[in-house]
Specification:
- The protein is of the alpha/beta class and about 450 residues long.
- The protein has three domains: about 5-145 and about 265-330, FAD/NAD(P)-binding domain (3-Layer(bba) Sandwich), CATH 3.50.50; about 155-265, FAD/NAD(P)-binding domain; about 350-445, FAD/NAD-linked reductase, C-terminal dimerisation domain (Enolase-like, domain 1).
- About 30% of the residues lie in helices and about 25% in strands.
- The chain is built from twelve helices and 22 strands.
- The strands form five sheets. Strands 1, 2, 3, 4, 5, 6 and 17 form a seven-stranded mixed sheet that branches. A five-stranded parallel sheet has the order 8-15-9-10-11.
- A hairpin with a 5-residue loop joins strand 12 (about 235-240) and strand 13.
- The chain is globular and about 70 Å long.
Length: about 450
């Protein structure tokens, strides 16, 4: 391709979006290099959704071991070894790091295991001092946990450190109301911690349907998780006995063994030299891009969390693919459709959703129809576990088209993936009604809604 540069594409960041973009660009014939200062795989693979899901699986066994007695099983001397699980998870992360690295190398992508900075027009300088040039530069550096600016914040941890704890804390305070806070609350609670969530507002998971939010709060409290709303940190003090004394607004002080911050994520744009070539940033430091992931600088693109469009791994992967196909492919330009993206919260129980909430649908469409199934899963009935699932379907009353599906209950994310295809395709409630149920399943509730 370009003979005037060392590379056709230089990617800064080896996460899901950067790896996909680099691999696809190379498959189109581009000469590609990638710089990653930590480990190839990024947040999701190394310190995010993949290891977290492994911990979620481990946490579910706590209730399964209780429930199994109702199904005739007797298990003597059961115990939990956090270090064993922690180390086994990290071993698998090492495997995935190697797999991602092999994928790049098999596509002849040159990997620099060091930090990279844009130091001039089409120019990148590596931490080692080596300077290279590229026709196109892709920034895919992701995001990092936000840490509140309060006295003593250095005594807390984030989700990054949660995977490497020496022991499960006896008492943990988790700050935040989003998916990370609720997921880790469920994990630590099942592992035996006394969990308290504090949040600046009185709303959890604000982007999800209100019915699901209320149900998760109800179930979480039933499981023993405490909540302190309208609370902000005043200070965190480390005591002589190693415990942490936390002072907050509107609530009494409390003493815990660990404070975890899950208060959002900030784009990683500092120190990349973006200002050197005039790349425009948003108010949160995010890289501003158009629908094709191009910045205001013609040869610089950005994908994934660093753009703060939708902070989800599959979205970053799609953006990386679309970028590579657009810039290096032979077809028409490709833009990612960021509407109607399904998502999940791996809480206990999990939440899954696609499309508009009831409130959003009423605001945008005016007249809507809402169908709800509020039931107890068969497994919970037999186990005598008083935990109810909730499925909710939102339809445009004018044409019967399904504009949103929202679920909380066992295996909700697994069920939602297929349902999301139907919503994306614009199917109607009548299409679901005409589909024969698979019985007995939880998923059949979707075609039996009244």
């Amino acid at each position: 391709m370009a003979d005037d540069y060392d590379y056709d594409l230089f990617t800064i960041g080896g996460g899901s979006g950067g790896v996909r973009a680099s691999r696809i660009a190379a498959s189109h014939g581009a000469k590609v290099a990638l710089a990653e200062e930590f480990r190839v795989g990024g947040t999701c693979v190394i310190r995010g959704c993949v290891p977290k899901k492994m911990l979620v699986y481990g946490a579910h066994f706590a209730e399964d071991l209780e429930d199994c007695e109702k199904f005739g099983w007797s298990i003597e001397g059961k115990s939990f070894d956090w270090v064993k699980l922690r180390d086994h998870v990290q071993k698998d992360i090492d495997r995935l790091n190697g797999a991602y690295t092999d994928t790049l190398e098999n596509h002849d992508v040159e990997i620099f295991h060091e930090r990279a900075e844009i130091t001039g027009d089409h120019e990148i300088t590596l931490a080692s001092g080596k300077t290279v040039t590229a026709k196109y530069i892709l920034v895919a550096t992701g995001a990092r946990p936000h840490v509140p600016d309060c006295p003593g914040h250095e005594h807390g941890i984030t989700s990054n450190e949660a995977f490497h704890l020496d022991a499960i804390p006896e008492r943990i305070l988790i700050a935040g109301g989003g998916y990370i806070a609720n997921e880790f609350a469920g994990i630590f609670n099942e592992f035996g911690s006394k969990v308290t969530i504090i949040n600046r507002s009185d709303t959890l998971l604000r982007s999800y349907d209100e019915s699901l939010r209320d149900r998760l709060l109800q179930i979480s409290m039933m499981k023993g998780i405490d909540f302190r709303f309208h609370a902000e940190f005043r200070c965190i003090e480390k005591l002589d006995n190693g415990k942490l004394k936390v002072s907050m607004t509107n609530h009494d002080d409390m003493e815990v063994d660990c404070v975890m911050f899950a208060t959002g994520r900030l784009p990683n744009t500092e120190g990349l030299g973006l200002d050197t070539i005039g790349v425009e940033l948003g108010d949160k430091g995010e890289i501003k891009v158009d629908r094709f992931s191009k910045t205001n600088v013609d040869y610089v693109y950005a994908v994934g969390d660093v753009t703060d469009r939708v902070q989800l791994t599959p979205v970053a992967i799609r953006e990386g693919q679309a970028f590579a196909d657009t810039v290096f492919g032979s077809g028409d330009p490709v833009a990612v459709d960021h509407s109607c993206i399904p998502s999940a919260v791996f809480s206990h129980p999990p939440i899954a959703a696609v499309g508009m909430t009831e409130g959003e649908a009423k605001n945008q469409l005016g007249n809507v129809k809402v169908y709800i199934s509020d039931f107890r899963a068969m497994k919970n009935v037999v186990a005598d576990r008083h935990e109810r699932s909730l499925y909710k379907m939102i339809c445009d009353a004018g044409n019967d088209r399904i504009v949103g599906i929202h679920m909380i209950g066992p295996e909700a994310p697994e069920i939602m993936q297929a349902a999301a295809v139907a919503v994306k395709a614009g199917l109607t409630k009548a299409d679901f009604d005409a589909t024969t149920a698979i019985h007995p399943t939880m998923a059949e509730e979707l075609v039996l809604l009244k």
